[in-house]
Amino acid sequence: MSYSKDHNQHQPYRNLGILGAIATLTMTLSVIASLETFQPWQSVYASENATVSTKLKQSDSKVVKIAGTYKTVFTPQFLVEAKKQGLASISGQWIIKPNGAFEAFVNATSTNGKKETIKTTGKVSIKNGKVVSQVETVNGKKASPLPPTQSYTLLTDGKTLQADDQPVKLVKQ
After folding, report:
1. Under 8 Å CB-to-CB from 129, ≥6 apart: which residues?
2. In whole angstroms, what is the distance from residue 2 CA to residue 4 CA?
3. Is 116 exposed, middle or buried (0-12, 13-18, 19+ CB in 10 A)?
4. Rounded distance, CA 173 to CA 9, Å?
5. Is 61 within 8 Å of 126 (Cβ atoms)?
């Protein structure tokens, strides 16, 4: 897949979405750290912006309902494209605490055997019936500037958070 120079300049923000899914909730799915031949967290951020801290107090009781450990699941199309670009495997996990804090991990292995783990932390809140995540740190370093927030829809099964407009969902374990 070829990208224009402009496309590549904006790729890190799109890629953080999986973690901000991924995780993202990680998730999510973040090119601040990348593999040699592949930047695995492609096309993952929605462009919604919200102040999480103001809404967090109002949504604490709702966040408790979604607290738990989630497995990151990528769409088949995303996995096919990732494999074409040199990614042998990718997995992730999100841990959402009752206070809205989250940790997300993405583990990726390139086809040449290089392994990469990206850890993000941040906050989740409930806004207008959606779960909204804000990544605050990536691999222990404060994200600057902060990436856009990522919204998720809680599916009818009550345990799946589908990242809006992104190729990833989080399934409660």
Report:
1. none
2. 7
3. middle
4. 36
5. no
